[in-house]
């Protein structure tokens, strides 16, 4: 899928769109929350499919498709440049990419159980439980993971930060809306939740 950005004149909204100012090919969009413009207006985040580099040009094997989380510049002098990128797995499960109100963090939400790479086995008495990642919190800049929320049953359909700085984040499964309280730049408490399953 292609993601395109056009110049838009808010004073004259009926003006036909000109050629797109930016076109990003091979964007992975599983939902309308699969790409996000930061609240500061300086960044665009999206997941992009690309080919892995070939270490040997004479290698006959086909290149692998890899997925990258990319941050593009929306500032005038660097518009469209990739400022940062990092490989992510299980892009086909990605349902949300959202910046925090300060644009210093991003949440990635996953809507399906991932492959074996992301699964761990937890012993609960005599029972073996398979868990998978449902949320990841990244720093911006740096794209370092500072918090991971694992779960055995939840599949997140959407996630977003509260619009007030320090207000936490919400994520929704098919049955429950949950609240994660924000304490510090790398500390999230995921124990609080609002059960909406009866609605």
Query: Pairing-aware structural class of the strands and helices?
Result: mainly beta
Give the termini distance in whole angstroms.
Answer: 35 Å
What is the helix tally?
A: 0
Order of helices and strands: EEEEEEEEEEEEEEEE
Q: How many DSSP-defined strands?
A: 16
Overall body shape: globular
The averaged pLDDT comes out at 79
List keywords for this structure.
single chain; 199 residues; mainly beta; 5-stranded antiparallel beta sheet; 16 strands; 0% helix; globular; disordered C terminus; Cleavage/polyadenylation specificity factor A subunit N-terminal domain-containing protein; AMBRA1_autophagy
Can you put this structure into words, describing what you see?
The protein has 199 residues and is an all-beta fold. It has a domain at 3-9 and 20-52 and 64-162. 0% of the residues lie in helices and 46% in strands. The chain contains no helices and 16 strands. It has strands spanning 3-5, 22-24, 35-37, 43-51, 65-73, 82-88, 94-99, 105-110, 120-124, 127-139, 145-151, 158-161, 169-172, 177-184, 187-189, 193-194. The strands form four sheets. Strands 7, 8, 9, 10 and 11 form a five-stranded antiparallel sheet that branches. Strands 12, 13, 14, 15 and 16 form a five-stranded antiparallel sheet that branches. Strands 3-4-5-6 form a four-stranded antiparallel sheet, with no helix packed on it. The model is unreliable at 182-199 (pLDDT under 50).
């Amino acid at each position: 899928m292609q993601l395109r950005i056009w110049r838009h004149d808010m004073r004259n909204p009926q003006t036909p769109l000109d050629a797109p100012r930016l076109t990003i090919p091979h964007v992975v969009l599983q939902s309308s929350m699969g790409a996000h413009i930061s609240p500061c207006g300086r960044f665009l985040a999206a997941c992009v499919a690309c080919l892995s580099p070939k270490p040997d040009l004479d290698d006959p094997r086909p290149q692998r498709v890899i997925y990258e989380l990319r941050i593009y510049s929306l500032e005038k002098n660097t518009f469209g440049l990739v400022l940062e990128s990092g490989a992510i797995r299980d892009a086909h499960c990605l349902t949300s990419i959202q910046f925090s109100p300060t644009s210093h963090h991003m949440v990635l939400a996953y809507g399906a159980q991932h492959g074996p790479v992301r699964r761990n086995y937890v012993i609960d008495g005599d029972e073996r439980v398979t868990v998978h990642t449902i949320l990841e919190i990244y720093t911006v800049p740096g794209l370092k993971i500072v918090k991971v929320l694992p779960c055995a049953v939840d599949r997140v359909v959407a996630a977003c930060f509260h619009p007030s700085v320090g207000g936490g984040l919400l994520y929704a499964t098919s049955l429950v809306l949950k609240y994660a309280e924000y304490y510090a730049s790398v500390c999230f408490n995921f124990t609080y939740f609002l059960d909406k399953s009866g609605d």
